[in-house]
Amino acid sequence: MLFTFFICLLKDPRTIGALVPSSARLARELAHLAKNSDHVLELGAGTGAVTQALSKVVTAEKLQVVELQKKLAASLIKKYPNLRVLQSAAHLALDNYRQDGSVAVVSSLPFRSLPPAIKHLTIQSLLAFLEASPGSQLIQYTYGLGLPFSVPSGFKWQQVKWIFANFPPACIWVLSKTADMPSVDLSSSLHPSSVARLEVARIRAKR
């Protein structure tokens, strides 16, 4: 599957975003944040690093996996035959996803490198989904110091923690409606003195 990942990266780097798949440590942290939701929707599954971690803590009935690239989606279907894998753009999947209860949207989408039109559509669909889904949240990671993307009033980002074991180092964020702000363990969040470590390890890939 790594070979397929690099082929897709070369063909369409803006929709892949990362130079290498997510690490197992990052994937576990994302899965941990999502596991208590009633349902989980994974966007930008790629090679399945996060999918694998999610499948260990979420039942197949509660997990929906979405990947845009045809070859990567086919690989996921082959690797995880018991999971629902959808080849689709993220905004279309969000617009058509209907479940009762809270939903954790776990995203590996590279917002900082997506084509502007696709980025706009995806953000609008995410915000509309969270607005219509009480108790739901977006779990997103980035490479860099800034927010994944700006949001209007009524929504708020919460920085959870940095994963320095990942290459490149990744920061995990949670987005929800202000009224639905989750209680997140911030004990491992980045201390201001740690910013220098990130700058030393600074990345070529951007999200």
Structural write-up:
It is a single chain. This protein is of the alpha/beta class and 207 residues long. It has a single domain, classed as 3-Layer(aba) Sandwich (Rossmann fold). It has eight helices and seven strands. Helix 3 (24-34) crosses helix 4. The two termini are 22 Å apart.
> How many domain units?
1
Count, helices = 8
List the secondary-structure elements in sequence, H or E: HHHEHEHEHEHEEEH
Strand composition percent: 15-25%
Number of strands: 7
Tell me the strand order in the biggest sheet: 3-2-1-4-5-7-6
Q: Helical residue percent?
A: 25-40%
**Low-confidence residue ranges:** 2-10, 12-17, 186-206
The overall pLDDT average reads: 85
CATH hierarchy, class: Alpha Beta
CATH topology: the name is: Rossmann fold
Helix/strand-derived class? alpha/beta
List the helices and strands and how they pair.
Layout: H1 2-11, H2 13-16, H3 24-34, E1 39-43, H4 49-57, E2 63-67, H5 70-79, E3 84-87, H6 90-95, E4 103-107, H7 116-132, E5 137-142, E6 155-163, E7 170-177, H8 195-200
Parallel strand pairs: 1-2, 1-4, 2-3, 4-5
Antiparallel strand pairs: 5-7, 6-7
Helix pairs in contact: 3-4
Search tags:
alpha/beta; 207 residues; 8 helices; single chain; globular; disordered N terminus; 7 strands; disordered C terminus; Rossmann fold
Give me a quick take on this structure:
The protein has 207 residues and is an alpha/beta fold. 35% of the residues lie in helices and 20% in strands.
